[in-house]
Structures are given as C-alpha cells and as structure tokens.
Write a structure and sequence with these properties.
Elements (H helix, E strand, L loop, with lengths): L8 E5 L4 E5 L1
Antiparallel strand pairs: 1-2
Length: 23
C-alpha cells in the first residue's frame, strides 16, 4: 500500500460500510 501512513493503515469495507484500523 502506498502512502505516508505507515503507522496506521485505514481499510474501508464497501460491503458493510465499516471502518477498520489496522496497526
């Protein structure tokens, strides 16, 4: 995954529209 957020990766689920934070 590209970006400047190496500490936290945000994943968005379109199926259930839920917010998941992966550390």
């Amino acid at each position: 995954m590209e970006g400047g957020a190496a500490m936290m990766i945000y994943f968005w689920d379109f199926a259930g529209t839920r917010f998941t934070v992966d550390i």
